[in-house]
Write a structure and sequence with these properties.
By secondary structure, the chain is mainly β. The chain is 1% helix and 37% strand. The strands form nine sheets. The chain has a five-stranded mixed sheet with strand order 11-13-18-15-16, with no helix packed on it. Strands 20-22-29-24-27 form a five-stranded mixed sheet, with no helix packed on it. A hairpin with a 4-residue loop joins strand 9 (117-122) and strand 10. It is elongated, with a radius of gyration of 41 Å. It starts with a helix and ends with a strand.
Length: 443
């Protein structure tokens, strides 16, 4: 019978007797359809065995993670190897075929794609620095990259360098050849071929008698060319500055127009004045400027007396309210304009009865009790200075001043307890002038 045909082996199936002849059985099929298991039949267990084999899932690439075999789902992908060390200044890579991480300190991670910048990673601070190129190391980027250096391959040529008057080279990059550079020529300023240099300050005197009519401004006679004789002045500014030109003793009507780069460059200011003298103020970026003292009439000439007061400043803008207040550092001087700002805070009536003028706001924090001094000396209009507390509210105990700085300038000099305060530069008139200067210090 069938029992006599058994070979006592489970895995090769059950043997049977057919017409007195033993025939082999059908082997046990242990396949589980998973591509990542080793399937076998166990004589000991009298059952199938399915051994998970992760190696059968490998795609031969280490960095995308070690693939593994799941007894239910089959081959599964693992998360790729994360080599990020959270340090900005390293280039993090997973290396094949080992799957080992490399973290190399490099500036490559700071590349901003701008050919005009030098991209460096500060490993100490773990930050990127992207500075304009400076091939000659004179601290001035080239003109081709928006800088002021007219020759970035010559360390002796840069803005505000000393002009060598006999070499025919524009050493200070002001665009004027030696014969026309104010450092080299000494003339009446009849034209920009030799303008009068007012960079060093002081009072300059002269006359337009005998001068020609070479330039005109937008606020002069119309059409251009019907104004009178003019004088050209030169001003070099290495830093942002608040500049005030003051005329005195003038006995003829005049106007002034200011240009950047050359006498026919971009006009940045123009204003008319009656005889007797007054002042023009302007907040200017670093650069070279030409001021033209002109006459609105073809036959009007006369003597002049003019001076330029230049104050290096930090230029601020958009400081319209306490929320956008510009922070103050004691010992610094700030400049800005009320143009585009609105009236947010009315000064106490003890200071002025005029309200409705636009105002600008600054914020200062006193870590300890201190005496604060603030002034608007040099501003182009009649100012009021007043202060608000840390909640941006005013009060009769907070300092306020109208003309304590002399003339139309304001000055606060008060002892204050430690805390945060807001300084408000306000307009004490309906003047259209808007440029102001604010100096703040602790005594």
């Amino acid at each position: 019978g069938n029992w006599d045909c058994q070979d006592c082996s489970y895995c090769n199936g059950v043997e049977v007797c057919v017409e007195f002849v033993c025939e082999g059985g059908i082997a046990i099929d242990c396949s589980d359809t998973h591509e990542c298991t080793t399937d076998s039949c166990s004589e000991e267990l009298l059952d199938c065995e399915h051994v998970l084999d992760d190696a059968l899932c490998s795609d031969g690439t280490a960095c995308n993670g070690a693939e593994f075999c799941d007894e239910t789902l089959g081959c599964q992908d693992a998360p790729p190897i994360d080599c990020n060390d959270s340090i900005l200044c390293t280039l993090d890579r997973c290396e094949e075929p080992t799957g080992a991480c490399t973290n190399v300190v490099t500036d490559e991670v700071c590349n901003d794609g701008d050919a005009c910048t030098i991209d460096v990673c500060d490993t100490g601070a773990d930050t990127c620095s992207n500075t304009l190129i400076d091939n000659d190391g004179d601290s001035f980027p080239p003109e081709s990259c928006g800088g002021p250096d007219c020759d970035d391959d010559d360390e002796d040529r840069y803005p505000w360098a000393t002009e060598i008057c006999t070499d025919g080279i524009d050493s200070n990059c002001n665009g004027l050849p030696d014969v026309s550079d104010p450092m080299c020529c000494s003339g009446s300023g009849d034209t920009c071929d030799c303008p009068v240099d007012m960079t060093t300050g002081g009072v300059l005197t002269g006359t337009t008698v005998g001068m020609s009519n070479d330039y005109c401004g937008t606020c002069g006679a119309s059409p251009c060319g019907f104004d009178g004789a003019d004088v050209a002045f030169y001003l070099s500014l290495p830093t942002a500055s608040f500049v005030q030109w003051t005329m005195s003793g003038m006995t003829w009507n005049f106007y002034m127009h200011l240009h950047e780069g050359s006498c026919r460059g971009t006009e940045v200011a123009c204003d008319t004045f009656p005889s007797g003298g007054t002042s023009l103020t302007k907040i200017l970026d670093p650069g070279f400027y030409f001021l033209i003292l002109d006459s609105p009439g073809m036959f009007t000439t006369g003597a002049y007396s003019i001076s330029a007061t230049t104050t290096p400043v930090e230029v601020v803008s958009s400081n319209d309210t306490c929320l956008s207040a510009a922070p103050v550092t004691p010992g610094m001087t700030y400049a800005g304009s009320l143009a585009g700002l609105v009236d947010d805070y009315a000064p106490p009536t003890a200071c002025t009865w005029i309200t409705g003028g636009a105002d600008a706001v600054f914020r200062i924090t006193l870590p300890t009790d201190a005496t604060l001094e603030a002034s608007t000396v040099g501003s182009s209009f009649d100012t009021v200075l007043h202060m608000l507390d840390s909640t941006c509210a005013g009060g009769t105990t907070l300092p306020c001043d109208t003309n304590g700085g002399g003339g139309t300038a304001s000055r606060i000099y008060n002892f204050l307890s430690a805390g945060t305060y807001y300084i408000v530069v306000d307009n004490n008139s309906w003047s259209t002038a808007t440029d102001y200067i604010l100096t703040v210090d602790l005594i």
